[in-house]
Amino acid sequence: MKHIFKEATEENLPTLVLLHGTGGNEEDLLPLADIIAPKAAVLGIRGNVLENGMPRFFKRLSEGVFDEEDLIFRTKELNEFLDEAAENYHFNRENLVAIGYSNGANIAASLLYHCQSSLKGAALFHAMVPRRDVEIPSANEVPIFIGAGKLDPLIPAKETKKLIDDLNRAGANVTEYWGEGGHQLTREEVIDAKRWFEENFIK
Q: Which of 102, 114, 118, 126 is catalytic?
């Protein structure tokens, strides 16, 4: 997978896995990483699927309707890539925190739904439920930050609440941020995510 890696300036911090939204690339969320954890190592990844020339992490059948078969395949592909990257760049595979926006947040959520212990934590900005009616592996107090917009035209509030409920039931420790806006990222939720990161991952 196309990617960019930046080494840590403070070794004990988790490596941040950056997962962009539709049409983004491996560098899109670097400014978020600089705000949330500027001393952490960063692995920015570009999705392997193209939709009308725009990179994504998995196919969809229509707006809000995922191609589940491709989602499962791409989730496994991403999980295996994280294994390989940990070996190549010598970071701790068991100490990864995903930061995903929109489509990238959805694939990060899918890792939590399908691959136990794949992430030590995740900040999911404007995510949807990746799959329904599946048994989610134990999240065992994994810290999860979920940022949502009350007026998001793409993700109804009940969808976000379902995601939160699913992760809580799996044992995750979920922190919610509800902004007054829509699908766009806001500085306020990023600052809230920074606070969440510092409380959970900086000793």
A: 102
